[in-house]
Write a structure and sequence with these properties.
Layout lengths: L2 H23 L5 E5 L6 H8 L8 E5 L1 E3 L9 H8 L9 E2 L9 H13 L5 E6 L17 H6 L4 E4 L8 E4 L1 H5 L1 E9 L1 H11 L17 E6 L1
Parallel strand pairs: 1-2, 1-5, 2-4, 5-8, 8-9
Antiparallel strand pairs: 3-7, 6-7
The structure holds 6-phosphogluconic acid (6PG).
6-phosphogluconic acid binds next to loops.
InterPro entries: 6-phosphogluconolactonase_DevB, 6PGL, Glc/Gal-6P_isomerase, NagB/RpiA_transferase-like
Protein name: 6-phosphogluconolactonase
GO molecular function: 6-phosphogluconolactonase activity
Length: about 220
């Protein structure tokens, strides 16, 4: 593990994403960026926040969210606010994936409407990946995995036995709607999972496979 190489990777990814947003903003009013939560993107968020952009024309959403309070420790929205929406980047429009409803099933329709109203196709969808091959909240053991892989609804409430909280995820169909797709991962373990994903085709076993043909630009560091 190397903090330096992860920082360099984050800076390279931030520059590539900023450039993609600039290219799209030269021909459209607003550009949409889809980011992932978890721990990997933190240095990327900080690097992107430092990039010069017309942030007031940038929309940001998450690929998925845990159904927790927006200021809760496990909230991806909290992470985005703390690390990405800082300085000039605070002018971006951030659209959270949670509502005041008690469950994601109750909130899913309102979230889907919000999501559908954004500037699709996204400029960039940045995906993360877990050691089990999940991406967004498309986990191999999600009860709604088949639905989330097949539906044309923008967002799906998911229950996943391996995860402590219920979640909401953008559907695979919605995550496909982008000009560019990036996989941002670090560490040898995840590189090995990606190699495994590339050598097979069962999406339900390793859901990241649903995006390998996007094409998916991989940003990896040890
Ligand atoms: O909310 C989340 O957890 C995600 O969006 C998720 O899909 C994440 O990208 C992977 O779990 C990798 O997470 P790490 O970066 O923490 O390894």
């Amino acid at each position: 593990m190397s903090d330096e190489s992860r920082k360099r990777l984050a800076a390279q990814l931030a520059e590539a994403v900023a450039e993609a947003l600039r290219v799209d903003l030269a021909r459209q009013d607003h550009a949409l960026l889809v980011v992932s939560g978890g721990s990997t993107p933190v240095p990327f968020f900080a690097a992107l926040a430092a990039c010069e952009l017309p942030w007031e024309r940038v929309q940001v959403i998450l690929a998925d969210e845990r159904w927790v309070a927006e200021d809760g420790d496990d909230s991806n929205a909290r992470l985005v606010r703390a690390h990405l929406l800082q300085g000039p980047a605070a002018a971006a429009t951030f659209v959270p994936l949670t509502t005041a409803d008690a469950t994601p099933e109750q909130g899913a329709e309102a979230v889907a409407e919000r999501v559908a109203g954004l500037a699709w196709p996204a400029s960039v969808v940045i995906l993360g990946m877990g050691g089990d091959g999940h991406t967004a909240s498309l986990f191999p053991d999600s009860r709604e995995l088949d639905l989330a892989l097949a539906t044309d609804a923008p967002a799906v409430a998911v229950r996943t036995p391996s995860q402590p909280q219920p979640r909401i995820t953008l559907s695979a169909d919605r995550l496909h709607q982008a000009h560019r797709h990036v996989l941002h991962i670090t560490g040898d373990d995840k590189r090995a999972v990606l190699a495994r994903a590339l050598s097979g085709d069962d999406v339900r076993e390793l859901p990241i496979r649903a995006f390998l043909a996007c094409p998916l630009a991989t940003y990896w560091a040890p």
